[in-house]
Design goal:
7-stranded parallel sheet, 8 helices
């Protein structure tokens, strides 16, 4: 086995991916499985998680689906316990699950605030806690927390979303310091504009009908933020997650990695 083969080989490892039923989570689950990992696909939508598992097994990989509500600590603990019970260990915890939100600060409801904190921040925190309880006695592991490129620029209307993602970034840095002595690496992925379920609200008009023109206007605006003139796809983030949980990134921890097309200006 050559350098590249061994650097990205996940044979014999076990990965948990939250939000694995669609978008970046699904792409990541499929890529990690193709690299040899046994993957537990966690999602609040069990039908979507089952679809991801079906795609992985059809391609010759190993995967199991499990319902998880990341806003509930007990549910996240059960997801990790399931992975260990099924496969005997946990090598990669990918906290991908999250929800978008946009509103001016004065228009944010308390319900919106609580929901974003519960899913985007507490959900990631619970995932880190559950993983650390397994990885510390194991003496190894990699945790990837998904933030957003919104942490780099103050986008109007994205206060709560940006706030939760900035907090995730700091959580990763602190956890990297705590996990390092135990052989555990923790990094943050801060994706740029990616064509996934996160942009579904731009696919429809106010009446809930498909609106291709509205979607194209949004996609054009996103492409314009990149010097490459591109809109990201879930696979672009999945490849970076593969790097972060593989031996290739053995010297990377406490860092924030970006696949964002060089995004350098607000949306």
């Amino acid at each position: 086995m050559g350098y590249l083969d061994s650097a990205f080989d996940l044979s014999g490892t076990v990965a948990v991916v939250t939000g694995g039923g669609s978008g970046m989570g699904r792409a990541s689950s499929e890529v990690l499985a193709e690299a040899g990992a046994s993957v537990v696909v966690g999602d609040i939508d069990t039908s979507r998680a089952d679809e991801t598992v079906a795609a992985i097994t059809a391609a010759g990989g190993t995967a199991k689906a499990r319902r998880v509500d990341v806003s509930q600590k007990a549910s996240v603990d059960a997801l990790v316990d399931f992975a260990v019970a099924e496969f005997g260990r946990l090598d990669a915890m990918c906290n991908v699950a999250g929800v978008p939100h946009s509103a001016e600060v004065v228009d944010v409801t308390e319900e919106d605030l609580d929901r974003l904190i519960a899913i985007n921040l507490k959900g990631t925190f619970f995932g880190c806690q559950a993983a650390m309880r397994v990885m510390v006695p194991q003496g190894s592991g990699s945790i990837v927390n998904v933030a957003s490129s919104i942490i780099d620029l103050p986008f109007q209307g994205y206060s709560v979303y940006g706030m939760t993602k900035a907090a995730v970034t700091m959580l990763s840095r602190v956890l990297a310091a705590e996990g390092g002595p135990h052989g555990i690496r923790v990094n943050t992925l801060a994706p740029g504009s990616t064509d996934s379920a996160f942009i579904d609200r731009h696919r429809f008009n106010e009446a809930g009908e498909p609106d291709p023109e509205r979607l194209e206007r949004y996609l054009a605006a996103m492409r314009a933020t990149s010097p490459l003139g591109l809109m990201g796809e879930p696979i672009d983030q999945a490849y970076l997650i593969l790097y972060l949980v593989s031996p290739a990134s053995r010297f990377a921890t406490g860092n924030t990695f970006r696949a964002n097309g060089g995004n350098a200006r607000p949306w």
